[in-house]
Write a structure and sequence with these properties.
This protein has eight helices and two strands, in the order ββαααααααα. With 187 residues, it is mainly α. It has two domains: 37 residues, no CATH class; 143 residues, no CATH class. β1 and β2 form a beta hairpin. α2 packs antiparallel against α5 and α2 packs across α7.
Length: 187
């Protein structure tokens, strides 16, 4: 290849050969950089949104109640008959306040994990499961289905479940340190 240099790049734990021209300064193609950073805006959006949602629930005096306007209990009772899985709501209605705290703390943990890039795949799986449970219960009756907001969140979490946070994350720092302790190499 005329004047190009071959660079070995580690992505997602696998070695990839990238060819770069002298004009690019050895950094690879701009598309390679764009692809590597493609999940970062999604991770930031989902992280901020889930932290906000968790804090909003925890600080809303009306939400964390069994009954009353704006309460988690009344909201669940209102959507019970239109949900895809009423048994999930029946289970949550055994302790609406406990369920409200579980959802809020789960959203907070998922959001912080996504923002920091710490245990990102696990955090993303948690976010996907929260979104799935809310889609099957709270927003199931949305017609047409794409008016419900929980299904797009479920789909948005899936790329992070699959890819994790390979850049600008604590996962990447920890992975780099582990490689340093085991003698480097491509593992």
């Amino acid at each position: 290849m005329g004047g190009e240099r071959r660079l070995a790049v580690m992505t997602h734990g696998m070695r990839t050969d990238v060819y770069s021209s002298p004009e690019s300064g050895g950094r690879g193609d701009w598309r390679d950089n764009a692809a590597r950073y493609a999940l970062l805006p999604l991770r930031i959006f989902l992280g901020v949104t889930f932290v906000y949602a968790g804090l909003d629930k925890l600080t809303d005096g009306a939400f964390m109640k069994d009954a009353g306007a704006g309460s988690v209990g009344d909201m669940m009772r209102a959507v019970r008959d239109s949900s895809a899985v009423p048994a999930l709501i029946d289970l949550a209605l055994k302790s609406p306040v406990g369920f409200g705290y579980a959802i809020a703390l789960g959203e907070l943990a998922v959001g912080i994990g996504a923002l920091l890039g710490l245990l990102t795949r696990l955090a993303a799986l948690g976010g996907a499961l929260i979104s799935l449970s809310l889609w099957l219960t709270v927003s199931w009756a949305a017609d047409p289905y794409y008016y419900g907001n929980d299904l797009p969140y479920l789909m948005a979490w899936l790329p992070l479940v699959l890819a994790g946070a390979p850049l600008l994350s604590l996962d990447a720092v920890l992975r780099s340190r582990r490689r340093g302790r085991t003698g480097g190499g491509f593992r």
